[in-house]
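Students often ask why inverse folding is considered easier than folding. One informal answer: many sequences map to the same fold, so there is more than one right answer. In these notes we will look at a single instance of the problem. The structure comes first.
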């Protein structure tokens, strides 16, 4: 991508009104744009990061048997009446009226869609277990959206639903998903700050699990047991001051943001929709369900919270919008020809490149913007480097530079990008 053609604009100075580092940096670097409170557009840079996160999640869901579907955002109100969540969740539901005064819900979640849908597919124990997921927009009427992508009204979510014949099978798959989540968080670079955290299961089960990433911008408070390392949320801590696992009572308190959650829903939704199956003995039984969510935008914000410095974002290689940022510092034709050739050579090798071809910007401006955008590897072409038939390489995470021969650049980048 030529930077001169990129649909974005950067802002040099921090916004005084932003409530989190991720909000400040993602808006200043031209990744997202706020339309209104809690609603954001993803510009090309941000959309590329979002798609990289999406692909990591999709790959991991497919590895544990998930089949991808896509369900409507627009849902019939009567389904929400059937589960009584029209009243339970009334503070966050967007309701609207269509022609003939028919009422609809703009889906904050999709249990009211997936359960009657699965009823058309599952009849016998032979049809179970089954796992389906989607990556779809959700809309929730948050009272106080804040901190950029960390608390919004419209967001992209991966929701996986599992259907089981018995509790043992549900319990087994629940742990498989938990391990998959740990793998996802490792791939996107936040595993070292993310804790599987015991939370209340509400009407579903004794416990559910939240995956909480430590950050000062977090709205949640978690407590990490100093003896066994298990984390619990504030609700669990208030109910029982001792660790559920080892019974110790010393905890480290941390601010965190929830980047994922998993629930054992049991028959909470299968019963209202009469989702049943015939077991081996010919008896009708209710299907047991599990639900597993990850908010993609929130995860993107959490990655920036965990990986930035005073100059800007430091993207992990796995989710960065581009692998390489070429910066041409020359004013002459020789540097331009060399930079353009490098750009084309890297593209031929399927290496994603942002090429700063702008000649109206000074070297200082280009470097400052490159740091703000946060692409992992910077390649600098200048008259000085070309004299040595080399380019200068700088990793965004490091302050040091190194010279690499142009003839070996592709191999170097394939190894390090």
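Output (designed amino acids):
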């Amino acid at each position: 991508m030529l930077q001169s053609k990129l649909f974005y604009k950067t802002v040099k100075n921090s916004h005084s009104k932003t409530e989190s580092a991720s909000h400040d940096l993602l808006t200043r670097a031209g990744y997202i744009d706020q339309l209104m409170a809690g609603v954001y557009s993803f510009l090309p840079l941000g959309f590329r990061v979002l798609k990289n996160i999406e692909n990591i999640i999709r790959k991991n869901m497919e590895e544990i048997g998930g089949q991808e579907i896509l369900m409507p955002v627009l849902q019939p109100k009567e389904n929400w009446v059937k589960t009584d969540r029209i009243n339970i969740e009334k503070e966050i539901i967007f309701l609207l009226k269509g022609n003939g005064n028919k009422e609809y819900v703009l889906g904050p979640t999709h249990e009211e869609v997936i359960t009657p849908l699965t009823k058309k597919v599952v009849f016998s124990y032979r049809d179970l277990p089954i796992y389906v997921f989607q990556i779809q927009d959700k809309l929730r009427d948050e009272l106080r959206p804040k901190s950029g992508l960390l608390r919004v009204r419209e967001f992209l979510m991966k929701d996986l639903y599992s259907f089981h014949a018995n509790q043992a099978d549900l319990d087994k798959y629940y742990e498989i998903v938990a391990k998959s989540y740990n793998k996802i968080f490792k791939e996107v670079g936040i595993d070292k700050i993310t804790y599987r955290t015991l939370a209340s299961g509400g009407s579903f089960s004794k416990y559910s699990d939240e995956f909480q990433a430590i950050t000062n911008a977090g709205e949640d408070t978690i407590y990490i047991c100093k003896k066994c390392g298990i984390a619990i949320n504030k609700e669990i801590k208030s109910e029982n001051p001792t660790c559920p696992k080892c019974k110790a009572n010393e905890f480290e308190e941390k601010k965190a943001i929830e980047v994922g959650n998993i629930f054992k829903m049991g028959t909470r939704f299968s019963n209202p929709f009469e989702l049943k199956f015939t077991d081996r003995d010919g008896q009708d039984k209710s299907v047991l369900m599990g639900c597993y969510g990850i908010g993609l935008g929130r995860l993107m914000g959490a990655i920036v919270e965990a990986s930035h410095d005073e100059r800007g974002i430091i993207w992990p290689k796995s989710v960065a919008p581009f692998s390489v940022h070429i910066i041409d510092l020359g004013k002459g034709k020789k540097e331009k020809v060399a930079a353009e050739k490098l750009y084309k050579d890297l593209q031929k090798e399927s290496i994603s490149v942002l090429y700063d071809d702008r000649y109206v910007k000074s070297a200082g401006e280009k470097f400052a913007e490159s740091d703000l955008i946060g692409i992992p590897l910077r390649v600098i072409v200048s008259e000085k480097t070309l004299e040595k038939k080399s380019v200068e390489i700088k990793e965004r995470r490091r302050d040091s530079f190194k010279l690499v021969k142009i003839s070996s650049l592709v191999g170097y980048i394939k190894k390090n990008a």
